[in-house]
Amino acid sequence: MKDLVEVIAKALVDNPEEVVVKETESGNSVRIVLSVAEDDMGKVIGKQGRIAKAIRTVVKAAATKENKRVNVEIL
């Protein structure tokens, strides 16, 4: 799932080399933290948070197949 978030984020931003994704797993839940360059923050969040919500939806759908819960945070 870390790779999925990384691929999506790098496709959206102007500075893909500054995309950093960290994943921590504890039991049945997974926490994914995405950080991008300050200039690219708007592109990852989108208008009214639509792109961020879409990223979370796609990752949650992938996690459901593995019977895991996912929390995606954007810094």
Describe the structure.
InterPro entries: KH_dom-like_a/b, KH_sf_prok-type, KhpA. A probable RNA chaperone. Forms a complex with KhpB which binds to cellular RNA and controls its expression. Plays a role in peptidoglycan (PG) homeostasis and cell length regulation. It comes from Anoxybacter fermentans. With 75 residues, the chain is an alpha+beta fold. The chain has helices at residues 2-12, 41-45, 50-65; strands spanning 20-26, 29-35, 69-74. It has a 3-stranded mixed beta sheet. β1 (20-26) and β2 form a beta hairpin. The radius of gyration is 12 Å and the shape is globular. The model has no long low-confidence stretch (mean pLDDT 95).
Average pLDDT level: 95
| Helical stretch tally | 3
CATH topology: GMP Synthetase, Chain A, domain 3
- Total number of distinct structural domains: 1
- Structural class category: alpha+beta
Question: What summary fits the major beta sheet?
Answer: 3 strands, mixed
Strand content: 25-35%
CATH superfamily: K homology (KH) domain
What is the N-to-C order of secondary-structure elements (H for helix, E for strand)? Answer: HEEHHE
Assembly state of the chains shown: single chain
- Distance between the amino and carboxyl termini: 18 Å
Instruction: Give me the count of strands.
Output: 3
Q: What is the rounded Rg? A: 12 Å
CATH class: Alpha Beta
**CATH architectural category:** 2-Layer Sandwich
User: How are the strands of the biggest sheet laid out side by side?
Assistant: 1-2-3
Subcellular location: Cytoplasm
Protein name: RNA-binding protein KhpA
Main location: cytoplasm
Subunit structure: Forms a complex with KhpB.
